[in-house]
Amino acid sequence: MQTDQHSRETEPAQVNARPSLAEITRVSVKVGLLSFGGPAAQISVMHQEFVENRKWLSEDRFLHALNYCMLLPGPEAQQMATYCGWLSGRMLGGLIAGLLFILPGAFAMAVVSYVYAAYADTSVIAAIFYGVKAGVLAIVLQALLRIGKKALKSRLAWIICGASFCALFFFSVPFPLVIIGAGLLGLVLGSAPNTELADEDAPAAKASAASSVRTLVVGLALWGAPPLAAAVLLAPGNVLVEVAEFFSLLAVVSFGGAYALLSYMAQVAVETKAWLGAGEMLDGLGLAETTPGPLILVTQFVGFLAGWREPTPFSSLTGACLAAAMTTWVTFAPSFLFVLTGAPWMERLRGNRKLAKALNAITAAVAGTILNLAIWFAVNVLFAETRTLSYGALEVLWPDVTSLDPILAGIALLAAFLVCGKARHGDGAGGDGSARLSRQDLTGMISGKQVPSRRGGRPQAAESSFSLPSFSFFPASSVSPSRSAS
Question: Tens digits of per-residue pLDDT, 20-43?
Answer without folding.
Answer: 899 999 999 999 988 876 777 788
